[in-house]
Specification:
310 residues; alpha/beta; single chain; Rossmann fold; 33% helix; binds N-carbamoyl-L-aspartate; five-stranded parallel beta sheet
Length: 310
């Protein structure tokens, strides 16, 4: 469901927004960046609930900061243990309840599909802030704003996605989003065990996307316009041994960047564990901390649109 007038508006997966609606959100984010003062009271009297059944730093706090920067207020919880989920309450009942206390809900849950179910139980807009290994549409909005600011456009580029492509939900949403732009190639860099899931392969093929898989980042570095690094998703592994074996599969350092383009942009949704050496942070191509800031502005834009505030 997209952000049409007079309709309950949710963001469950990135394709709930058309390319035009994403352009519009990027435009609003740019207006906010240019003149944040103009927005400080626009959500006065509105309440956002952040329901986080899984850990988070950036996503939860950027939603909080975004709503506060718009003059709204925020309530919620940051772990399932401090909510009635710990007593056995269902997601449906929790969301029905919180819908009575808030105007918009951002929700993160370890189970794929939980935000979709939640959206059927309340008339308040639901934003998926990450559902298991599935999707993370607001990280993708952040990534799209970052790419658009850094490159000046969203098509005509080769994007390398590196790390845990199996469980990394940010990767799945970013591919779904970028597939809709002209002349985008994907280079999927992962160990065999962490390759992109079948449903994503089928999606890329049915959309005619151009993509290839490799195991070594050095082999493809010179082709890339964007390098999107990701963490190995420890919490989704069935056993610790496999995690320990795979966790340091890729460590981006200055040596590995030897053949990279001058205008490569290095992105990472964060948190970083070991996959980017700290020495890379000082390279002008490192854009992952800019990405953090863009996450706040695009979430401000999203809140405004989902609340129907002009
Ligand atoms: C990502 C997530 O939660 O999927 N983090 C984030 O929201 N910025 C990436 C990750 O946890 O590895």
């Amino acid at each position: 469901m997209g952000i049409k007038e007079n309709e309950v508006r949710n963001l469950i997966k990135i394709t709930d927004l058309s390319v035009e609606e994403i352009d519009e959100l990027i435009g609003i984010a740019n207006d906010i960046i240019a003149d944040p003062e103009a927005y400080i009271d626009i959500c006065h009297g509105k309440i956002m609930a952040t329901l986080f059944f899984e850990p988070s730093t950036r996503t939860r706090l950027s939603f909080t900061s975004a709503m506060m920067s718009l003059g709204g207020q925020v309530l919620g919880f940051s772990e399932a243990a401090s909510s009635s989920a710990a007593k056995g309450e269902s997601v449906s009942d929790t969301v029905r309840t919180v819908g009575a206390y808030s105007d918009i809900i951002a929700m993160r849950h370890p189970k794929e599909g939980a935000p979709l179910i939640a959206s059927e139980r309340t008339t308040v807009p639901i934003i998926n802030a990450g559902d298991g290994g599935h999707f993370h549409p607001t990280q993708t909005l952040t990534d799209l704003l970052t790419i658009s600011e850094v490159k000046g456009h969203l098509g005509d580029m080769t994007i390398g996605l590196c790390g845990d492509l199996c469980f990394g939900r940010t990767v799945h949403s970013l591919i779904e989003a970028m597939m809709r732009y002209e002349n985008v190639r994907f280079v999927l860099i992962s160990p065999r065990e962490l390759r992109i899931p079948k449903y994503m392969r089928e999606l890329m093929d049915s959309n005619g996307a151009e993509w290839k898989e490799v195991e070594r980042m050095e082999d493809v570095m010179s082709e890339l316009d964007i390098l999107y690094m990701t963490r190995v998703q420890r919490e989704r592994f069935f056993n610790e041994e496999d995690y320990v074996r795979l966790k340091d599969s890729y460590i981006l350092d200055m040596d590995k960047l030897a053949d990279a383009k001058e205008d490569l942009a290095i992105l990472h949704p964060l948190p970083r564990v070991n996959e980017i050496a700290v020495e890379v942070d000082d390279d002008p191509r490192a854009k992952y901390f800019d990405q953090v800031l863009y996450g706040r502005y695009i979430r401000m834009a999203l809140i405004l649109r989902l609340l129907g505030i002009k």
